[in-house]
Amino acid sequence: MDRNVVFIALFAALIAALGYVPQIMLASGVPVTAQSLGVMLCGTVLGSKRGALAVLLFLALVFVGLPLLSGGRSGIGLLASPSAGFLIGWPVAAFVTGLIVEKVRFASITVVASTASIIGGIVVLYIFGIVGLALGLDKSIPSAAILVVAYIPGDIIKAVIAGLVTAALLKARPQSVLSRAS
Amino acid sequence: MLSFESPVITPWHRVPIGVKLAVVCITSLLLFIFDSIEVQLFALSICSCLYVIAGRVFFKAGIKRLYFLWPILLIILVWHGVTDTAAQGLVIALRLVTIIALSNLMTMTSRLSDMLGWIQCVLKPIQALGVNTRPVEIAIALVVRFTPVLIAKGGALRDAWRSRSVKKGNWRIVFPLFLVAIDDAEQVAEALKARGGTLQLTDRKR
User: Fold this and answer.
1) For a FRET experiment, which of A45, A61, B19, B203 has its CA 20 to 30 Å from that of A75?
2) B-chain residues within 8 Å CB-CB of A18?
């Protein structure tokens, strides 16, 4: 119990800290922040429930006004912005990612965690994000989808990094990777 | 660093946070229902007045916090300009600016302690149902305490990388950063256990 609470809190703080890792620019000029990488890792390392709770805790603090999102954005007003769908999708993304890592044990952890990050952190997340974008900007779903295509290559890179980092953590601290500890 | 309070004390600081939150929610709802351009313009001018009343320094700080919106606004306006629905685009853009400016006003004029107090208010009914909300409170305190710590450790790792390599090590510090955080988490968990754990703390308080 105590251990779970502390892990959830520290991973929420980690997502915030990742907002301060400088952005990488892809060749296409699209900026990639590390925070969604943090969301994937919450799922792969903490597992479904704890991962989703860590992301929820992070978001709750952002909404009450702590400047934890990259660029120092915060406040309940973010829910009115067109990209709100992505924020709402984050906890679900972490949950799905974690669930896959918990259940699928037949392949290597790198492959499982990367694939789980792609399914949870890209497929599931983008469904929320695109619907949010379509509602916020009054557009059809396909035209909203076009707006986010540019971000997919960056997110695939992040999913692979999430897989590699999870595998390395499992090797270094097997007891602390809670999604596989039980 | 971990607060977004306004640089100056304004009259809005005295308004209870519940009232401010209600105003933001109701206004947002109304702006979505009445989506004529006149209503949106009226709302934005009222919102600007609220900023002006709070003074020049506050106004400037408020404008600065809206900068991040410009790419989104550009996309909206260009899109609607191209598809011949400029009026609709203007309404969406105006509404977006007003709602975000209004909620920024709330965030900037509320102390962090008030905000967290409000979270506790929300937790109270859950507490009444017999659920122990102490772990949530401890988790919030831990995030506030550890975010600057982890940012500092991330910075140190980046410096260490830079002093040894000509390449930028952005994503390469993610693994050591997580390792550091996991080790910290294990230590804090031990310390918490040694002090009676999250559930024990509640019993003692009562």
Assistant:
1) A45
2) 154, 174, 177
Distance from CA of A24 to the nearest CA of B (A): 8
- The residue segments making up the domain with residue B52 are 11-113
Q: 3-class SS at A31?
A: strand
Complex confidence, ipTM:
0.85
Measured from the Cβ of residue A13, the count of other Cβ atoms closer than 10 Å reads 30
Here the tokens at position B71 are 């790419």
- My answer on whether B136 and B107 are in the same domain is no
Tell me if the pTM is above 0.95: no
User: In terms of domains, do B98 and B63 share one?
Assistant: yes
CB-count burial class (<10 Å; 0-12, 13-18, 19+) for B137: middle
For residue A174, give the 3-state DSSP assignment.
coil
* Amino acid A25: pLDDT: 54
Residue B41, helix vs strand vs coil: helix
- The number of domains in chain B is 2
pLDDT tens digits for range A24-42: 555 554 556 788 889 999 9
Give percent helix, percent strand, percent coil of chain A, each to the nearest 5: 75, 0, 20
Check: CB of residue A166 under 8 Å from CB of residue A173: no
Domains present along chain A, CATH in parentheses:
2-181 (1.10.1760.20)
Is B188 domain-assigned? yes
B145 in the same domain as B107: no
